[in-house]
Amino acid sequence: MSDLAEVGRFLNVFEAQTAVAVLDASDIEATVVTDNAGGALPSLSALSGGVRVLVRAEDAPAARAALASEEPLPD
């Protein structure tokens, strides 16, 4: 992917992968970017600014709308 845009930042990889699944259901290709030593040190993700979800720049408005339309899980 070239010309990428960040559409979300999450506390952990699970939350980011959930966002990617939402985007995939909307036919939007996305990728997860994090610095956690290859999964060996998950706490590094929070220290490095979180887990980012990136999409093509031209897909960013639709991706943000898709993520905003998702309802949170009940408590």
Can you offer a commentary on this structure?
The protein is of the alpha+beta class and 75 residues long. It has one domain: Alpha-Beta Plaits (2-Layer Sandwich). The protein is 37% helix and 23% strand. A 3-stranded antiparallel β-sheet has the order 1-3-2, covered by helices on one side. It is globular and about 25 Å long. The model has no long low-confidence stretch (mean pLDDT 82).
Features:
globular; three-stranded antiparallel β-sheet; single chain; 75 residues; Alpha-Beta Plaits; 23% strand; alpha+beta
Describe the structure concisely for a colleague.
Helix content is 37%, strand content 23%. It is an alpha+beta fold.
Beginning-to-end CA distance, first to last residue: 36 Å
Assign the CATH superfamily: Hypothetical protein rpa1041
Number of helices: 3
Which series of helices and strands comes N to C? EHEHEH
Do you know the CATH topology? Alpha-Beta Plaits
Low-confidence stretches: none
Helices and strands in order:
Elements: E1 4-10, H1 13-25, E2 30-33, H2 43-47, E3 51-56, H3 60-69
